[in-house]
């Protein structure tokens, strides 16, 4: 059975690798650019699963599936490919801001206590730290507005580009064909075949398949439109920067991701930290977004407010990317394209593409082998 996957970010690569473990499938992946570009190349790889407030339904199941799968997937890929994947197993420390002893602060702590109890029944840990414990264990955090912190020891962070390249290498080892620098011109609509698509047209010829998986992020909208099924996915720009401090914040042996007010401080080794990311929407109905330097500066200043030592750091690089956000419906979109029995959508992950890539791959595999 032939499968064509369109798109090779983290999601497309994860699907290719997962399907490569199914022996009867012959898989081809097509992308107009090298792997791990677009939103994958801009991601910070912070896997906020257990610390998220999703506790039931599909949103939680996907997070749980991915968090569990990453624990085996990373060593599996490293062994198969000899690629080292940076994988921070020291958890996520979420800083809580507000006014101590206010009703709002009390309510927030109460919500975290409820989530901690739920996670305990699910077999996961969350720890609620007061400001004294935070100062004791993480003295580099000095923000006077903090009311405490949540520590999630089982959440993770990884390098999205290294992950994607390892997934591609492992899938290639398993016989997957990758076609990079190839533009998809269109998916041929069925003529007399009812709801079955036959082939995809590209700049390198036509590819026939039994299944087509559209994992093209923002490129999914024009592809679906060619089949008269508009899947409306809009861009949301994110900017990040890499700071070089030259030494670790606090204890070099305890380097979790720090997050607060939607700003992440991600240790990447050798005294370097990724900081991000902005959330920038298009204006006036346009799909064009120019990076706002003031917003990136505000993200940097929030990171410095949390960890004043970062004021001494130098900016090594800045970067940005567009995240694919579904319009008018929840992210992500993992389903059959309406009206077609063999076109699957795995797209529109917005800010959770890296987190949900393993669960997305598993869902696509089940949809294919169930038929």
What does this structure look like?
The chain contains nine helices and 20 strands. The protein folds into two domains: about 1-85 and about 160-230 and about 330-370, FAD/NAD(P)-binding domain, CATH 3.50.50.60; about 90-155 and about 235-325, D-Amino Acid Oxidase, Chain A, domain 2. The protein starts with a strand and ends with a helix. The longest helix is centred in the first third of the chain and has 25 residues, at about 55-80. The model has no long low-confidence stretch (mean pLDDT about 95). A hairpin with a 6-residue loop joins strand 19 (about 335) and strand 20 (about 345). Helix 1 (about 10-20) runs parallel beside helix 6 (about 160-175), helix 1 (about 10-20) runs parallel beside helix 9 (about 355-370) and helix 3 (about 55-80) packs across helix 9 (about 355-370). With about 375 residues, the chain is α+β, with helices and mostly antiparallel strands. It has helices spanning about 10-20, 40, 55-80, 105-120, 130-135, 160-175, 220-225, 295-305, 355-370, and strands at about 1-5, 25-30, 45, 85-90, 90-95, 125-130, 145-150, 155-160, 175-180, 185, 200, 205-210, 210-215, 235-245, 255-260, 265-270, 270-275, 315-325, 335, 345.
């Amino acid at each position: 059975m032939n499968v064509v996957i369109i798109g090779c970010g983290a999601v497309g690569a994860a699907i290719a690798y997962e399907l490569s473990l199914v022996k009867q499938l012959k898989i081809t992946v097509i992308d107009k650019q090298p792997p791990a570009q677009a939103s994958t190349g801009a991601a910070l790889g912070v896997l906020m699963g257990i610390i998220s407030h999703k506790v039931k339904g599909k949103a939680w199941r996907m997070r749980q599936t991915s968090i569990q799968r990453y624990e085996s997937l990373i060593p599996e890929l490293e062994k198969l490919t000899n690629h080292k994947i940076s994988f921070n197993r020291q958890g996520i420390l979420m800083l809580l801001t507000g006014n101590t002893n206010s009703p709002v602060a009390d309510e927030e702590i109460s919500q975290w206590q409820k989530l901690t109890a739920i996670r305990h029944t699910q077999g996961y840990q969350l720890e609620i730290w007061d400001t004294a414990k935070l100062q004791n264990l993480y003295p580099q955090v000095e923000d006077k507005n903090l009311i405490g912190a949540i520590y999630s020891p089982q959440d993770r962070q990884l390098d999205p580009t290294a992950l994607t390249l390892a997934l591609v290498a492992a899938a290639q080892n398993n016989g997957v064909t990758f076609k990079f620098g190839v533009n998809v011109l269109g998916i041929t609509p069925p003529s007399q075949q009812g709801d079955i698509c036959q082939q995809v047209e590209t700049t390198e010829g036509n590819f026939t398949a039994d299944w087509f998986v559209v994992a093209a992020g923002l490129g999914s909208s024009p592809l679906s439109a060619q089949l008269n099924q508009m899947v409306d996915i809009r861009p949301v720009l994110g900017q990040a920067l890499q700071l070089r401090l030259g030494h670790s914040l606090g204890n070099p042996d305890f380097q979790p991701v720090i997050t607060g007010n939607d700003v992440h401080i991600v240790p990447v080794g050798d005294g370097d930290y990724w900081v991000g990311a902005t959330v920038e929407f298009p204006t006036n109905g346009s799909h064009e977004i120019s990076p706002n330097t003031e917003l990136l500066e505000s993200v940097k200043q929030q990171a410095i407010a949390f960890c004043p030592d970062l004021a001494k750091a130098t900016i090594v690089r800045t970067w940005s990317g567009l995240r694919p956000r579904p319009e008018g419906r929840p992210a992500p979109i993992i389903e059959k394209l309406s009206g077609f029995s063999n076109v699957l959508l795995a797209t529109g992950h917005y800010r959770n593409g890296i987190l949900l890539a393993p669960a997305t791959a598993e869902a696509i595999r089940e949809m294919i082998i169930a038929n």
